[in-house]
Amino acid sequence: KDLSGNQYQLFSPEIESRTFEQIQLENDLFKALQKNDEFELYYQPKFDVRTEKLIGMESLIRWNHPRRGTIPPGQFIPLAEETGLITNLGEWVIREACQQMKKWVTSGHTELIVSANLSPQQFNQQNLVLTVSDILEETGLPAKHLELELTENLIIHNTEHTLKTIGQLKELGVQISIDDFGTGYSSLGYLKDFPVDTLKIDKSFINNVTTNRNNAAITKTIITLADSLQLNVIAEGVEEAAQATFLAEHGCHWIQGYYYSHPLQAETFEDHFLKSFIK
Ligand code: C2E
Ligand code: CA
Ligand code: CA
Ligand code: CA
Q1: Whose CA is nearest to atom 42 of ligand 1?
Q2: Exposed, middle or buried, 84 (CB in 10 Å: 0-12/13-18/19+)?
Q3: Total-model pTM
Q4: Phi, psi at residue 108, to the nearest 5°?
Q5: What is d(CA 166, CA 164) in angstroms, rounded to the nearest whole number?
Q6: How far apart are CA 195 and CA 191, in angstroms?
Q7: How many other CB atoms sit within 10 Å of the CB of residue 25?
Q8: Rounded to an integer, what distance in angstroms lies between the CA atom of residue 44 and that of residue 187?
Q9: Which of 42, 60, 148, 178 to mutate to test the pocket of ligand 1 (most atoms within 8 A of CB)?
Q10: Alpha-carbon distance 16 to 39, whole Å?
């Protein structure tokens, strides 16, 4: 990319081997997308802070690589974005999440919402709305059970397309949340223009919310902001009881994090959180 003034880096063996590895991984990713049997969605539960009831789950992709083992999304989503493979991958994610959710709804969990993460490239593709509506129809999942998590930076850029797309997704009945909220370099003005449903407070604020006054202030401000704009607000990355207590005391609506559960495979998620229902 930006190698101006840095050309010598091209010849460092370290860079060379990393590039080779990247190319290899890119090849593997391409092949994996032909079969789609190496990807898996994990699910992390979300809870209502007051009632402590399960409200839904976030789907998070994993790649079960035949030689390298489980690869976390941080290591291949950026690659998928660079290569354009994200379109197919992202479509697989939405379809898989909807199929799974349809099963859970059918077995009686009619209050739950599954969320899927959308990368900027995916959001900006022309036929996203059509793809989502096709998948909903094909899987038979009512749209109200699907939420799409968009990042704040995506919303700020390319306003016209974004506004139109979010509007069309809302028309389908899909929920929209803003992920990593508070980390973008935005003015908050856009919030009044975009028909989003939920703000997700970034885990970097929650991480030390009980010890860092600034993060506590930001967290409280986001909760107040959500309330006054009549939006839902969820905190991610809750790892400790004290953080949960802080969020409860300050009126955060929903909560998610390792303190409650790591992301789990579908079957394990069912065993832990959905089994008390009669099927
Ligand atoms: P994200 O959407 O912000 O997801 C939250 C990340 O924090 C997840 O990492 C989750 O496992 C992790 N996490 C959950 N609770 C805690 C906690 O209490 N403490 C800490 N420290 N971390 C926690 P993961 O699964 O590795 O995903 C990383 C990122 O990769 C996601 O960040 C998202 O941006 C992206 N990603 C994951 N799945 C998908 C996908 O299906 N499509 C796209 N486009 N991106 C995805
Ligand atoms: Ca997310
Ligand atoms: Ca996040
Ligand atoms: Ca399975």
Answers
A1: 117
A2: exposed
A3: 0.92
A4: 115, -5
A5: 6
A6: 8
A7: 18
A8: 30
A9: 60
A10: 28
Averages of pLDDT over runs of 10 residues in the chain (279 residues) are: 46 62 90 92 97 97 95 94 93 98 97 96 91 98 97 75 92 96 77 89 96 97 95 98 98 98 98 75
- With a CB cutoff of 8 Å and minimum separation 6, the contacts of 217 are none
Closest ligand 1 atom to residue 81 Cα is 44
Nearest Cα residue to 84 out of 133, 120, 43, 37: 120
25-69 confidence digits (pLDDT tens): 999 999 999 988 999 999 999 999 999 999 999 999 999 999 999
pLDDT the model gives residue 8: 45
- State which ligand 1 atom lies nearest to the alpha carbon of 44: 14
Instruction: Report residue 135 as tokens.
Output: 């998948």
Atom of ligand 1 at shortest range from CA of 41? 41
Cβ distance 254 to 232 under 8 Å? Answer: yes
CA angle 240, 78, 71 (to 5 degrees): 60
The H or E element that residue 91 is part of is helix 86-106
Beta strands in 152-236 (DSSP E): 175-181, 198-201, 232-235
How far, in Å, CA of 215 to CA of 206, rounded? Answer: 7
Residues with CB under 6 A from ligand 1: 44, 60-61, 72-74, 77, 90, 93, 117-119, 149, 179-180, 203, 236-239, 257-258, 263
Question: Residue 152 and residue 123: Cα distance in Å, rounded?
Answer: 12
Token pair for 51: 């009632």
Closest to 127 in 3D by CA, of 175, 73, 76, 90: 90
